[in-house]
Amino acid sequence: MTQMTIGRLSKAAGVKVTTIRYYESIDLMGEPDRSSSGQRLYGDEAVQRLSFIRHARDLGFPMEAVREMIDLQTQPDQDCTAVDAIAREQLADVRKRLTQLEALEAELKRMITCCEGGRVDTCRIISTLNDHSECIADAHERLSTF
Amino acid sequence: MTQMTIGRLSKAAGVKVTTIRYYESIDLMGEPDRSSSGQRLYGDEAVQRLSFIRHARDLGFPMEAVREMIDLQTQPDQDCTAVDAIAREQLADVRKRLTQLEALEAELKRMITCCEGGRVDTCRIISTLNDHSECIADAHERLSTF
DNA sequence: CTTGCCTCTATAGTCGCTGTAGACTGTAGG
DNA sequence: CCTACAGTCTACAGCGACTATAGAGGCAAG
């Protein structure tokens, strides 16, 4: 199976047809061959590239980084310091997001332990959101439930 | 200082002027008073509401949830089960994202330990992105660096 | 009075897609 | 061969949550 239509490629790579065309339009995929009637025809390397893109995106790499890495792949004789740098940057970013999310988790737990099913006007979640500095002291003992 | 212009509100609440007007346009803020020349004039409760919105957004609450909570605040005599439910949902979501990010961190670490500054065509980061199932075995011993 | 910042409205642009419309193509069954 | 029907084509609009721009008018200090 050397040539496949966009729909088959879509299934093979797990990327929607419209998204593939979109990637083409922003020059992430080269221009594919066309059948006599104008339908796009792809080879297996298109599956590779799409999986690469999708995987990188799943890992949270920004589009720009993906593009850079793809460009680098077209010059395979260079050293890969640049690729390494991109990955390290991404790792740092992920770490930052992890820290933020952890703080966030703690705060949400706190909010929830503070809400005891009263009325909205005394609700601790609401007041926590209104004023960041509330309801910390008495939360600690109840956190185990979460 | 009972009435302030949008710029002062912006500074007081840490939300950009344009964003405030945007929130007004999507009915998150009520219509403010206007000066004789048509400039928006806000009271302190606007600072409250904006901080609430910003804080909730920082915590990752979706806009829709923010809107719901604001609506609930206008009916302060109801019980706050709904608010609690929203917060719990958000907590579950945060947990999910945490798990994903942790997996992601692990994979990025793996990718980086595998990349030894060779050439792009042998770069393990690139090949990891191309094919998910590589380069796991020999990574473990070097992970400590990260 | 002028300078310079603030505010106004309305509109377009951002990112990373997704969805739509309306036409054409390719294929399988009868 | 004809008919269905699924797949494909282009071009463009829409999404969320803002951000930026243009061009006009407002306000306070020097």
UniProtKB/TrEMBL annotation, chains A, B:
<dbReference type="Pfam" id="PF09278">
    <property type="entry name" value="MerR-DNA-bind"/>
</dbReference>
<dbReference type="InterPro" id="IPR000551">
    <property type="entry name" value="MerR-type_HTH_dom"/>
</dbReference>
<dbReference type="InterPro" id="IPR047057">
    <property type="entry name" value="MerR_fam"/>
</dbReference>
<keyword id="KW-0804">Transcription</keyword>
<dbReference type="InterPro" id="IPR009061">
    <property type="entry name" value="DNA-bd_dom_put_sf"/>
</dbReference>
<feature type="domain" description="HTH merR-type">
    <location>
        <begin position="1"/>
        <end position="72"/>
    </location>
</feature>
<keyword id="KW-0238">DNA-binding</keyword>
<dbReference type="InterPro" id="IPR015358">
    <property type="entry name" value="Tscrpt_reg_MerR_DNA-bd"/>
</dbReference>
<protein>
    <recommendedName>
        <fullName>HTH merR-type domain-containing protein</fullName>
    </recommendedName>
</protein>
<keyword id="KW-0805">Transcription regulation</keyword>
<dbReference type="GO" id="GO:0003677">
    <property type="term" value="F:DNA binding"/>
</dbReference>
<dbReference type="GO" id="GO:0003700">
    <property type="term" value="F:DNA-binding transcription factor activity"/>
</dbReference>
<dbReference type="Pfam" id="PF00376">
    <property type="entry name" value="MerR"/>
</dbReference>
